[in-house]
Amino acid sequence: RSSDLREVLPCDALTVSCNEMVDTKTVSLLLGVLLAQGNKEDEIEGVCGRVLKLLESRQAEGQSLRHLLPILSKVLDLTPEALNEEQVNTMSRKLVDWLRYASTVQGIPISSGGFFSSPRLRQPAPVLEVDGAVAGDFFTVLSIGQYYTEDQWLNMHSFSMIKKWLLCYEAEGASSPEADEKSELDSSIMSMVSACSTSSRLMPPKERLREKVFEYCNRLIEQSDRKALKKSDSDLQKACLVEAVILLDLICRQDMLFVYRAFPVVKALYGRICADSTFARVLLPVAQFYLNHSETAGVDSEAVYKRLFTKIPTELYQDPMMAFEFVQFCRENVKTLSESVGIFRRSFPSLLKFVAWNSSSLFPEFIDLLPVLIDYDTAI
């Protein structure tokens, strides 16, 4: 079994090959074994080549490509340079198709072929929104169905790994605040931004993927405004909001032209959720987005920071996950916060509540913040 083979130490005398295998689930298990047994460059390149070859091929009925995407994700963790430029472009095109063009009708259950099974095929039903309405736009992880088609599964798996992919393979030639002076963003550039989506098919593969991820995140944010019928779907909405804002932030860091398209979306989202404590976890990536891009967009961000540093420490200090994520946010942005966000230092007494209620797990992280938090005005 693959679980047993994973425990076997790498052995040069043992050669395992999957070149002749066509069953994708078996291949995924075997490739998982190869990756778990060592980090040999030639083996990883072989695994990568086999995965990509299968992803590009037409699969027989009953075969599923979605088993291979976790293997590709593992390759990105180990050796992202195992993919050459042509392979990266090919996969970027695949990800565009899976993210943006999945079917909008539900899958059909596989018949067991029993005596009482109906010979008639039911008309496929459309996928639904979380509030029960028929989906009016493209499929996402927040689209609901009783059964899912293969391309819908690929859509969901692709979304789970898209951040890692974008981090590994940033598009060349992307604009950034460091490379372009803000004064150069005149009306001609802004018109180019507005026309960006209409010409996306003319873009290089990696840039087109980024455009489609932007559209996907917008769609998720729109779907999150619907009233979910189930609590599990409501929880999923919040998780998707966190991921969507993180992805928008990443896209804008890679190409500043997206800032002017993303900021109205994030600003509207903040206005919608800021007073609802159940969306507190979403405030952190929203605040991160403002930290990274408010200066570029010329947007006042003081109200966002004020709510973040007053609402969460005073109302949600007993939530261990919220406390950990909040302190991590402060640690990762301590330089910017200490230099540009005045309320960060002034909130020091309130931040102590996190330590008081979560001291054993949080103290090592929190102690890193003390040098910038404690001064004559905040010492108690």
UniProtKB/TrEMBL annotation:
<dbReference type="InterPro" id="IPR055450">
    <property type="entry name" value="AP5Z1_ARM"/>
</dbReference>
<dbReference type="Pfam" id="PF14764">
    <property type="entry name" value="SPG48"/>
</dbReference>
<feature type="domain" description="AP-5 complex subunit zeta-1 ARM repeats">
    <location>
        <begin position="236"/>
        <end position="353"/>
    </location>
</feature>
<dbReference type="GO" id="GO:0044599">
    <property type="term" value="C:AP-5 adaptor complex"/>
</dbReference>
<protein>
    <submittedName>
        <fullName>Forkhead box K1</fullName>
    </submittedName>
</protein>
<dbReference type="Pfam" id="PF25153">
    <property type="entry name" value="TPR_AP5Z1"/>
</dbReference>
<dbReference type="InterPro" id="IPR028222">
    <property type="entry name" value="AP5Z1"/>
</dbReference>
<dbReference type="InterPro" id="IPR056857">
    <property type="entry name" value="TPR_AP5Z1_N"/>
</dbReference>
<feature type="domain" description="AP-5 complex subunit zeta-1 N-terminal TPR">
    <location>
        <begin position="4"/>
        <end position="195"/>
    </location>
</feature>
